[in-house]
Amino acid sequence: MRPRPLRHHAALRGGSDESKRSRGGTRGEATNTVRYRDRETGELGYERVFGADALHFLYETRRGGLLRTGLRRRAVSRLYGLLQRRGASRRRIPDFVAGLGIDASEAELPLEAYRSLDDFFTRRLKPGVRPVDPDPRVLVFPADGRVLVYPRLDGVRLRVKGCSVDLDELLGDREAASRFRDGTAVVVRLAPADYHRFHFPDGGEAGNARPIRGPLESVHAIALDAGSQSLHNKREVTWISSRGFGQLAIVEVGAMLVGTIVQTYAPGPVTRGQEKGYFRFGGSTVVLLLEPGRLCLDADLIEASAAGLETRVKMGTRIGEAP
């Protein structure tokens, strides 16, 4: 099924500043929502931000900046993750679901069956909830989330709501990055409300995931608006010789207080839509990189991204197709 055409909302006419984050009231107040376009309906929506007040404090105040320096330490991140995996945290699941508007009916298990908040966060979904586009000419999204696309990497830096990074920095390998000059990038930001397992966008042969270390930062738009360089975070890069789109790279990016990236696949033959891994508690990002001339992105994604507006998408739906 093809996506609905892009509607020309005021947010698009107003450009990227309008689409970043809704503010109101006195100076410094924020509505704790982030605007996006829902691809299924074509309508604008507002993301409910988990821990928005904490994000504003950490990234928009001097004292928060000092505290953030300590939170970037991996020991702190590991401790926070352990707390979310304790059995006592399961009591927070109903409020987490209600507060973020999560559709619990999609989850593989009933809420009471999850042993901790992290156990629910890394949940699988019921079979058939995320059908994968079967057309071999189509590349599919590897995860649920909010997406920005870059049709041509002609010397521009990848941007995620104010964070910018070049291919050399992202991959940690200048020679590898050269394959994607004038190529295409797809950046999918996963919010805490999203399904946090990621999948292969096409079948083929997958190599080992290569870890790249870096300081942990939030990948949320609030943090990125404040200049957080989230794509310098811990990340893992996997190369795939795909069936329909040549050599492509998948980069998983960890975020502050979540850094853990778990790979569940075995290197070798993989299939479109096959689970690749998951992120532990928090919000994270998946980046796809393709060589020049391999992918024609869908027009609605290009237009929304050019206006600085993220598009909410689901795993298994189309990104575009081979030329």
Order of helices and strands: HHEEHHHHHEEEEHHEEEEHEEEEEEEHEE
Radius of gyration: 19 Å
How much helical structure, as a percent, in the residues?
10-25%
Arithmetic mean of pLDDT: 79
Major sheet description = 11 strands, mixed
Broad structural category:
alpha+beta
β-strand percent reads: 25-35%
| Total of DSSP H or I helical runs spanning 4+ residues | 11
What is the number of independent domains? 1
Report the span from N to C terminus: 19 Å
Strand tally: 19
Coarse shape: globular
Question: Low-confidence stretches at least 5 residues in length (pLDDT < 50)?
Answer: 13-31, 51-59, 64-68, 216-224, 226-231
Question: TL;DR?
Answer:
The chain is α+β, with helices and mostly antiparallel strands.
Describe the structure.
With 323 residues, this protein is an alpha+beta fold. It has one domain. It is built from 11 helices and 19 strands. Strands 1, 2, 4, 7, 9, 10, 11, 12, 14, 16 and 18 form an 11-stranded mixed β-sheet that branches. A 3-stranded antiparallel β-sheet has the order 3-19-17. Helix 3 packs across helix 4. The longest helix is centred in the N-terminal third of the chain and has 12 residues. It is globular, with a radius of gyration of 19 Å. The two termini are 19 Å apart.
